[in-house]
Write a structure and sequence with these properties.
The protein has about 130 residues and is of the alpha+beta class. It contains 2 helices and 8 strands, in the order βαββββαβββ.
């Protein structure tokens, strides 16, 4: 990941949650020429890393069970210095916490937030490697 993406407030990752992973992969490969690398995720569906010029640029994943019935959507991740502090600040500023902060092994700490206007974002504090 580029250093610019690791700065507080920077957009750092984009992820498609979809009801049809293969259909999405076919569509975007035809539209954008994307290449993919599937990564196993335990017992569940694999996570697909989107590559542009051989570099990771985004991800595609099957919609989780708790999201069934929602339309497929692109999610935006914003880098923050401290996810837990960001959660508190979002609430103070009138936003909502849709998924409390939790750790993603070997990646960092993550949460799902909603701004006062209803837009949803993901906040991530990446592990320092």
């Amino acid at each position: 990941m580029e250093n610019e993406c690791m700065k507080h407030g920077a957009f750092s990752w984009f992820e498609l949650m979809t009801t049809d992973v293969q259909g999405a992969k076919d569509f975007y490969a035809g539209l954008c020429g994307w290449e993919y690398e599937d990564m196993p995720m335990g017992d569940g569906d694999p996570y697909t890393v989107v590559k542009v010029d051989g570099k990771a640029a985004a991800g595609i994943m099957a919609q989780p069970e708790e999201c069934r019935g929602m339309p497929s959507s692109w999610d935006i991740y914003i880098t923050v210095d401290d996810v837990d502090a960001t959660v508190k600040q979002v609430v103070e500023l009138g936003g909502k916490v849709l998924r409390p902060a939790f750790d993603i092994p070997e990646v960092g700490r993550f949460c799902v937030l909603q701004d006062p206007q209803g837009a949803v974002i993901m906040a991530m504090t990446y592990l320092q490697k």
